[in-house]
Amino acid sequence: MRLEPRPASSVAASILWPAGAILATVVFSSLLVMIAGASPLTVFWLVIKGAAGSQFAALETLTRATPLIFTGLAVAVAFRAKLWNIGAEAQLYLGAVMTVVIGTGAVTLPSAGLIPLIMIAAMLTGALALLGPAVLKTKFGVDEVVTTLLLNFIVLLFVSMLLEGPLKDPTGLGWPQSKRVIAEAQLPRLIKGKRLHFGFILAIVSAIVVWVIMKKTTLGYEMRAVGHNAEAARFAGIPVNRVIVKTALLSGGLAALAGFSEVAGLKGNLTLDLSPGYGYTGIVVAMLAMLNPLGVIAAAIFVAGIFVGADAMSRSANVPSYIAEVMVATSLLTMVAAIMLMRYRVRWR
Amino acid sequence: MNEALEILFTASFWVAAIRIASPLIFATMGELICERAGVLNLGIEGIMVAGAFSGWFTVYMGGDLWTGVFVAALTGAMFGLLHGFLTVPLGLSQHVTGIGITLLASSLTYFTYRILLPEVSSPPKIEPFQPFAVPVLSDIPVLGPALFNQTPLTYLAYFTVAAVAFVFYRTPVGVAVRAVGENPSAVEAQGISVTAVRIGAVMVGSALMAIGGAFLTMSAFNSFFFEMINGRGWIAIALVVFGSWRPGKALIGAILFAAFDAYQVRLQQITGGVIPYQIFLMMPFVLSIVALVVVARRATYPKALMIPYQKGER
Description:
- The complex is a heterodimer of chains A (349) and B (314).
- Chain A has 349 residues and is mainly alpha-helical.
- Chain A has helices at residues 11-35, 40-52, 55-80, 88-103, 111-140, 144-164, 199-216, 218-228, 230-235, 240-267, 278-288, 293-316, 323-343; strands at 2-5, 344-347.
- Chain A starts with a strand and ends with a strand.
- The longest helix of chain B has 27 residues, at 194-220.
- Chain B has helices at 2-6, 11-36, 44-60, 65-87, 94-116, 143-148, 152-170, 172-182, 184-189, 194-220, 232-242, 247-271, 277-296, and strands at residues 132-133, 149-150.
- Chain B has one domain: ABC transporter involved in vitamin B12 uptake, BtuC.
- At the A-B interface, helix 6, helix 11 and helix 13 of A face helix 5, helix 11 and helix 13 of B.
C-alpha cells in the first residue's frame, strides 16, 4: 500500500475518518469493559453522567481541564515548530515551585501585584527549564526528546528534595509538602463554594493569546515555517535556531502556568502528586486539537471529561478508572491516524 | 575516601552492576534494532511495563519461567506490530505514535492488573530466576562471580548482544535491516519490501524491550509494582545514542551506566545522609544527558531515522 496526497480536501474523508477514530476507540474500550464484566452501555452512560450530568460534574470537568489547557498549549506551540517538548511535566512542577517560593510569604503585595509577579516568575522558570534542552539541540545537536524526558525525572527528584528540605512545611506532620500560599497569592474561585477557579479564565485567555501569536505575528509564521521545513526556512532567511529558542521559552512558560494555576487556584500548596501526568496528557490534548490553540480548549475539556467521568463511574460500576487512560491513549493513536487519512488516501497495489 | 574506592574492588559491587545492566542491555538492543531500521520507538517505556507484567503474571498463574519470558516477548512484539503499522505504512509521526504506545501499553497494563488482581493490597510474589554459577568461569576473582554467577536471563542478555552483532554484520537479514535505516530506496530496488523489514525489526526490537521489563519482575525482583520501570526505557534511548548505534559500544555503555548506578547506591550508604538522597538518584539521569552532549558532535544517526518511506519516492 502507499499513500498519496488528496488533490482537494474531501469533505467525506474529513468527517468519516475522525468518526471512525471515535468509533474504534469506543469499540476497543467497550471490549475492555466487557472483559471487566460490566455492560458498556451502562459504563459509558455513567462516564458521561459523571463528566457532565450535573452542575458539580461539569464544574469538576472544567477544573480538571484547566492544567490540561496550559500543557496542551505548551505542547501545541512546541510541536508546531517540530520542537519535541516531552518535558511539560517538569516545567509544570518548576512553575509550581516558583509559585510557593514567592507566594508563601516571601513577598507581600496586594493580589493585583503579587499574582502577576508570581505568574511572570513561574513562566520564566518553566521557560528556562526548556531553554536548556533547546540550546543543547541548536548548539550541540542533542535530541530534545531524550533530554526533556530525562529532565522530568531529574526535576521530580529535585522537587522531592525541596519538599523534604528548604520548602518543607514545618507544621506538615512530616509529610513532604510545602507551606500554603498566602491569601493574596490565591486565585479567586469563580463560583462561591465551588472548586472552579480563576485559572480557567487565565487558560482560556492564554489560548486566545497563543492563537493570535501563531496566526497573526511574524514569530508565529516563522515557527510554522521552521516546523514545516527547517531547511527551506533557513534558506528563506529565517533564523531557525533563534526561532526554536523563542518557541522553547513560550512553550516552557505555558507549561509552568499549569503548575502555577494548580497551586494558586486549587491545591494551595505543593506536593509530589500535584500532577497525575498532566504534562504527558498535554501531548494527547495538543494532538487531538491538531495543534490548534483554540482547539486545545475543546480537546482539554473532552479529555478532562473522560478522566472525571471515569473516576465517578469506577465508584459505582466495578471497572477500574484506568479505563480513562486507555481511552485517552487509544483516541490519540486513532485520531493521529485519522488525521493522516483525511489528507492522504491509501492506494493498494 | 578510601572506603569510596574500595567499593570498586568488591565482587558484590560488580555483581550488582551486571544485574542492573541486564534489563538495560535488553532494552538498549531492542531500541537499537528499531532505530537501525529507521524507526524511533518511544513506546519502549510502556512496552517494558507490559513485558514486566505479562511475564510475571504468566508465572504467577502457574506457567514456568521461560514461558513467562516468551509471553513477555510476544506482548512486546504485538505492541511493536502496532507501532510499526502506524509509523511505517501509515507514516505517522514516530514521536507522537511512540508516546501514544507508551501511554497505551502502560495504561492497559494497569487496567489489566486491577482486573486480574482486584483485591490485593501488596503485590503477590513469584519464585524468580535463581543465580546459576557457570563452572570454572565463575571462579575467576572479582570478574568471575560478577559475570558468571548471575541468573539465566543475564546470560540471555549477553547472548542477545552477540546475536544482534552477528545478525547485523554477518547475515543478509542484518544487511537489509541496516540498509532500510540508511537508504531504503536501494533496498526496494533489490526487490525487498522496506515496509516488511521495518515492521519486522520493530517487532523484534519491541520483544527485547519487553524481556528487559520482565527481567525486573522475574529476576531482579519477584513481583510487579506500578512505576517499576522508572525511566529505564528513556535511559536505553540515551544509551543507543551513546553507543553510536553499535551493539558492542551500547553494551559497554549499559555496563558503565549500571556500574555508576550501583556505585551511587553504595556511596549513599557511606556518606550517611549528609547529601540528600535525591541527589544520588538524579545522577543516572544527569549522567545520561552529559553522555549525550559528549557524543552528540560525532553522532552518526542512521540516515533514514524518522523518515517515513514511500515506495517510488526518492
